[in-house]
Amino acid sequence: MRTASGKRPWTFYMLAAFFTLFVLFLYGPMTVIYVLSFQGPNGGLTFPMNGFSTQWFNELVQPGRSGDIAGSFRRSLLLAAIVTVLTVLICVAAGLGFRRRFRGAAVLFYLVIASLVMPGIFVGLGISLGFQLMDMQTDWLVSGLGAQLTWTLPFGLLVMFAVIGRFNRSYEEAARDLGASAWQRMREVTLPILLPGIIGVGLFGFTLSYDEFARTVLTAGSENTLPLEIWAMTTNVTSPALFAVGTVTTVISFFVIVIGLGSIALIQRRRGHNVASH
What is the mean pLDDT of the segment spanning 45-68? Predict the structure, then answer.
């Protein structure tokens, strides 16, 4: 964007400066955490750095010194995997079911979406009180799972609605005309076309579950998930091991996101080649 004289207007530089400040504000603190996680053995929680080491990453696998990071990490991964599978199955089934009008569809939809506008801490409190009334102990794999599904299912359902809304049902009609059964149409036509959106639902489920705190803090029971363990570390750990946890969890999150987006890109590329070949 240039003026008639060939120079950029002053608004361009203002916008560029604003964008630069925004990026620094967004990623600056994260970069500081990543750098300080490699603090030397005698270093602290602030700059200047006192050497360079990976000692604080090694401490994460030693129970008792920096909390049960290894155990909470395994619990969070298992819980996120279960939440992802359930979110995909339920949202795909619900998305396909909502393609047909049925009595009470609007009420059911708003009941599902309602949990998005409710404060997460109150959702967790309600689930915790419900377990107490039933004389049951809260547990990360039972009550924690239910609490997290109240967070992931609405997002997954909205994504499926957007994907199915763009789905051209003429492909199913063509398959029906060729004699395909309902299961064949679902397996060979509908699901392959919806697959990129389904992967997106899975990404939502995993990432939302992996770092969920508010709904889990009152429903996890006596064993912490990783976000709860990190919160506990902020009150009793005064070493760069806390920053090392942040670095590891960020790497895992980006790794999952890259795999998901890479899978979607690969699917789209293969479809492009198939269309071009025909």
Answer: 76
> C-alpha angle with apex 153: 98 to 133, nearest 5 degrees?
115
The kind and range of the H/E element at 127 are helix 120-133
Residue among 219, 232, 203 at smallest CA distance from 71: 232
The answer to whether residue 67 scores a pLDDT higher than 60 is yes
Lookup result for tokens 């709904």: 215
The alpha carbon of residue 223 and the mean position of all alpha carbons in its chain are separated, in whole angstroms, by 21
CA 58, CA 202: separation in Å to the nearest integer?
Answer: 31
DSSP state of 67: -
Cβ–Cβ under 8 Å, residues 128 and 219: yes
- For 144-176, what is each residue's pLDDT tens digit? 999 999 999 999 999 999 898 888 888 888 888
Please tell me the distance from the alpha carbon of residue 23 to that of residue 65, in angstroms, as a whole number.
35
pLDDT exceeding 70 applies to what percent of the chain?
91
**Dihedral of CA 145/147/153/156: which sign?**
negative
Does pLDDT of 4 surpass 70? no
pLDDT over threshold 70, residue 273: no
Residue 8 in tokens? 């950029």
In the chain, the domains with their CATH numbers are: 68-277 (1.10.3720.10)
Contact 72, 224 (CB under 8 A): yes
Which tokens belong to 273?
């080649």
